[in-house]
């Protein structure tokens, strides 16, 4: 159980990553991914990478610079500009709905203006899901200078676009609906220099 625990990626740059295992019964026409990160990196880094054999950036949460997040679906992306962090924990949720092509982005419990992305697309179900590296192939092809260094926690993936109430609940660590990936019962494998430690503060 990872309750009140974090993954610490100790090195910069790093070849470390965490493999996540989700039981996906079918392709995704809607989804929400949420996580909490803590880093002092100024360079580009990957937070959540979901690759299929057909598309290495099937779902990707990427931070090219401190004041910008990129959210990819099916290899295309939209950019959300954010205030430069105060070197504190940042909680992000990104959701996507195929029928409308609406991409939502929430930072620390607040929504950003919605954007359009990949209307009508379907996200493949056979996936390699990694934290800490950006895949340029299925389960590999890493650029160490896109690696994450710091702490990650509260990682979730749902097969639905969460309501605003649930987005805020994720930020506040309240009760959440059942998920494909849930921090409380995460099936994971550590690769390289990454360790599980208690969270230093709430």
TrEMBL record:
SUPFAM superfamilies: Concanavalin A-like lectins/glucanases. GO terms for molecular function: complement component C1q complex binding; metal ion binding. Binds 2 calcium ions per subunit. Residues 3-202 form the Pentraxin (PTX) domain. Keywords: Acute phase, Calcium, Disulfide bond, Metal-binding, Secreted, Signal. The gene is Ptx2. It is found in: Secreted. This is Pentraxin family member. GO terms for biological process: acute-phase response; innate immune response. The keyword Calcium applies. It holds the Pfam family Pentaxin. It comes from Daphoenositta chrysoptera (varied sittella).
